[in-house]
């Protein structure tokens, strides 16, 4: 069976692009899946080879697609969903760069799909008028595409590297919130996007992701959403007058209290965005006894309180993991179990090796963790040692926020 076919097509600003169709074979559990791609030819050898089997559909899904009052369709929890729980795994129907191409190229990308997939694509939301995007496929791409990585090892030089997006008939039904309860993770090896919960979602609640960097100020978030997706955000962090007359529709000036609340939210979001560079981190603390025993835990609990307030749960894992590690170094078994179990639950999709490591440790932490109670033992051996410095050194871990965002023009 031919799984991968190319037809050389267009050159845009000196760059050649290839229309390339991927047919992922079906298995005992799945039908074959076709992905219609527009690619820099240099990316083709970087695709998984052989292609993976098409993903098995999820039995008894925990979500439904329903119509909303003013946002088009949306995804809603069909039952309670736990933090970290899988919602859906899906192959894109299209993969293409963010740049603009002639309408005929978009149409051709759509036409290369089997009829059922093409109809699914054409039924998706399109926020662009015919004047803006002559091809409806382009309008659908601009409204829906999620960034994905085809060259994780950086084989293509930085100057030539482009941003690619994927379009997903189901995941893309998720509407936007600046305090999302779910997020996505791309996996090149299986050519899938996984959509999963960031915090508990109750039955009937809308399942939403963020389309933009949630660290932006309210003004910038609203401007970006209007420019790229053509809507005014009415999430609780933007429409601070929910239930009353709202600024978005009526352009009334904010009261002093409303203005203060917007400024506090902007400040807290910006602070969370730089927290790991400006606040103490586990790595240095773990070997430095001059720092107080609770400095990381206290600081990280502060960050988690802000994360809860702003609904930025996409940032929580690093803090939760480091708090668990602090309790391990302090030899506090109950607290390590409590935080470690949260790590396992929240990391199963986001970072499965971390989830597995914690699962292993949780069987018998004092026996299995090399540094178990290291700080406690050091203190016992040096009871007189004073803690000299307040800790103001930043962590060096870098959070990759990119997976949170949709791509924009
Ligand atoms: C990726 S689609 C989301 C699914 C879409 N509602 C549908 O019917 O398929 C993006 C479009 O949904 C709408 N949308 C998404 N989030 C919204 C929100 N928070 N408020 C209003 N409209 C929203 C906008 O029209 C936006 O261009």
From TrEMBL:
Annotated transmembrane regions: none
Gene3D superfamilies attached to this UniProt entry: SET domain (2.170.270.10)
Superkingdom of the source species: Eukaryota
PROSITE patterns: SET
InterPro entries: SET_dom (IPR001214), SET_dom_sf (IPR046341), SET_domain_protein (IPR053185)
Domain SET, chain residue ranges per copy: 61-212
One protein family per Pfam: SET
Name listed for the protein in its UniProt record: SET domain-containing protein
Organism: Psilocybe cyanescens
């Amino acid at each position: 069976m031919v799984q991968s076919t190319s037809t050389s097509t267009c050159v845009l600003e000196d760059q050649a692009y290839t229309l390339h169709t991927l047919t992922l074979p079906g298995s005992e559990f799945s039908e074959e899946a076709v992905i219609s791609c527009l690619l820099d030819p240099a990316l083709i050898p970087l695709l998984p080879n052989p292609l993976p089997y098409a993903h098995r559909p999820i039995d008894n899904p925990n979500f439904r697609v329903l119509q909303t009052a003013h946002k088009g369709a949306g995804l809603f929890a069909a039952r309670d969903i736990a933090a970290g729980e899988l919602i859906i795994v899906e192959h894109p129907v299209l993969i293409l760069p963010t740049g603009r191409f002639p309408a005929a190229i978009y149409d051709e990308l759509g036409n290369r799909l089997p009829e059922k997939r093409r109809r699914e694509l054409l039924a998706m939301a399109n926020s662009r008028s015919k004047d803006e995007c002559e091809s409806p496929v382009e309008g659908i791409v601009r409204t829906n595409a999620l960034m994905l990585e085809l060259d994780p090892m950086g084989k293509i030089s930085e100057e030539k590297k482009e941003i690619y997006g994927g379009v997903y008939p189901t995941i893309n039904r998720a509407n936007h919130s600046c305090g999302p309860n779910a997020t996505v993770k791309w996996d090149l090896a299986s050519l899938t996007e996984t959509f999963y919960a960031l915090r508990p979602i109750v039955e009937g609640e809308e399942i939403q992701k963020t389309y933009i960097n949630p660290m932006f100020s309210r003004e910038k978030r609203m401007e970006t959403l209007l420019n790229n997706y053509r809507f005014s955000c009415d999430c609780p962090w933007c429409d601070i007058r929910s239930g009353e007359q709202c600024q978005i529709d009526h352009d009334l000036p904010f009261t002093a209290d409303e203005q203060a609340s917007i400024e506090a939210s902007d400040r807290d979001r910006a602070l969370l965005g730089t927290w790991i560079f400006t606040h103490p981190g586990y790595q240095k603390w773990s070997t430095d006894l001059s720092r107080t025993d609770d400095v990381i835990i206290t600081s990280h609990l502060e960050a988690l309180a802000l994360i809860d307030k702003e609904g930025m749960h996409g940032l929580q894992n690093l803090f939760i993991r480091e708090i668990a590690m602090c309790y391990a170094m302090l030899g506090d078994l109950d607290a390590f179990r409590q935080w470690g179990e949260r790590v396992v639950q929240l990391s199963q999709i986001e970072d499965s090796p971390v989830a597995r490591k914690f699962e292993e440790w949780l069987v018998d932490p004092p026996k299995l963790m090399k540094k178990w109670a290291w700080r406690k033992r050091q203190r016992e051996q040096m009871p007189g040692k004073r803690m000299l410095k307040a800790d103001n050194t930043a962590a060096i871990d870098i959070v990759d926020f990119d997976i949170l965002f949709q791509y924009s023009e």
